[in-house]
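Hey there, shall we discuss this one?
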Amino acid sequence: MSTQRLAAMLLVSCAIASTAYSRPKPLPASPPTFDVTMEEASITMPDGVKLAADIWRPKGKGDTARFPVLLEYLPYRKTESRGESYPMYAYFVRRGYVVARVDIRGTGNSEGTLIPYEYSDIENQDGDTVIAWLAKQSFSNGKVGMFGISWGGFNSIHMAMRRPPALKAIIAVDATDDLYQDDVHFMDGIMHVDSWEMSQDLHNAIPGAPEFRIDEQYFKDRFDAPPWGLTYKRQQRDGPFWDRTSLRERYDSIQAATLMIGGWYDGYRDSVPRMLEHLKAPVKAIVGAWNHTFPHEPYPKPGFEFRHEAVRWFDYWLKGRDTGIMDEPRLAVYVRDWHPPGPYLETAPGKWRYEDGWPIARLQQRMLYPRADRSLADGASEAASLALRYVPTTGVEAGGPVMWFGDVAPDQRPSDAYSLTFDSAPLTSNMEILGLPLAKLAVSADAPQADWIARLEDVAPDGTTVLVASAAQNGAHRVSAREPRALVPGERFELPIEMHFTSWVFPAGHRLRFAVSNAQWPMLWPTPYAMTTQLYLGADATHLVLPVIPEAKRPVPSYEPIDDREDKLPGFASMDTGTPSGYGEISSVERNPRTGAAKVVATNDSAYRFPWGERYETEVITHESNDNHPDTTSVRGQYTTTLKLKDRTLRWESTVVWRSDREKFYYTGSRRLLKDGVLVRERSWEDAIPRDHQ
């Protein structure tokens, strides 16, 4: 080797070594150095309406500096939520952030007429103004981040799509990129009446705390506003109404750095792999075992100190502080091991690991075929077909206690009894799946409308059956959810059903079960016709595609343990939190074998104490249907909110009834306001909405 070439190689080696050596080590997350103070503010919109804001700010040495601002933008009443929000906001403020909680127009303490529905254009336009206002304040360094769970996660995504200049980073927890398919109005394109939908109409009708001013302007802006649910149920097919803030068709619209967080027992988890794969902006994701909760308040366990990771994320993007978070792999996932069925589970067994992104390069697809002998095997059998009689009131077990594609589901055997089921041979070794299992069905029906539900289950040696993944498909949407078409009775067609995002390790000795049914009531509204469906088997017919993950040595995240020290705001307390989910959960199931009638009741009660008084809430949801007359299905939601104040007692009551016949959905709703037991105001609504392939 020549002397010149050797010298050149030495120079390159020294340069590389120098670069590696000189790179600074990642910094820890910002430490807690401030106390916390809060002030109320109003933010004036272009039309003069003022939105109410709580501004939580650092207090102490250095508090005159400019800080990044974190925005949570919600209709969930900032003033009453202070006690619940304080541990989160205080954590951020102590570490050098301003946190702004803003009530959406017409909700909480904000002025104006109630927005017409969630994520409306006016809400988003107001959001632009809010972000610009926050960026210009004397306490702001000009950089804004958004965060939140559910609605807060949704509008973090939606505002990022609008690209306001000051919005640099978001954290969206338990939110989705597809409003039509994933949200609670039409689950998997099928009619669903949700506890949240019905209860929110009552919450929208309550004025701001602590004055709770009752006057004609209040009645005009809130109490008399029409129910949101009527708007949603008129939009039974995908299309422009849902497109307005759906990210799924325009991933390149987001430029802000995005951290997505989902849970295996939450209904919005499918967005995590899609956004991780398709976003052009910097993106990372975490998926754990919790349901619709923040990871530092997990149910079920385990969780981690989400607030610490949030500070690391926002430090990097809003403070220019290199915490090393962007050097870590893009996906952290908690892989579930087997556990017994629910409906309740304190801790989900499993283990954390990192993956480089999505899709995972080493993923292998395993195809399994159902056979006429009810086995499930790697090879297809001869062509055959199996008939399934539609039993409309089955499927209670497949929706979990809150009746959606989340939560811990009970043992699946009662639902399996009314399904076509296919079992594999006992596994000879553990098998892990991670992803979205795909059921490719070949089916037909002797009626013009039918739904199909596919479930993947784990059957233990003692017969215990755990739901691993599931999803549904409206048969009329077999070509397009935007242009549904009635079924042609007897006509065979292909119906792919992509099951919801899942992870699971099937233990050796367990069997895989593939189940197919036509009902998942009361989660999914039954189709109106008695019928029999056919499932076609064979090499070119129904099969299951599993996302199998071979074992590999992968790095493991080292999350901070949850800081569960009490951090409470005086004067705010929960006296009774009600159900684990905070929504109505199934409390009774009744069936009459003689008449075919079935009833499912879900309930919830809660109570809270505030500096100005106490609030009590009740919820009773009654689902009724009949196997002999599935067209005559109904849901009745009954809600009350009672405020015991120093000078008066206010009570809001709401009854919402959805029912159907073969042709239409019928709505009847009423609101009542009583002061000290005397009726002050009452409004009611009725409507009939044609069934649009539902």
Residues 3-22 form the longest helix (20 residues). The two ends are 78 Å apart (CA to CA).
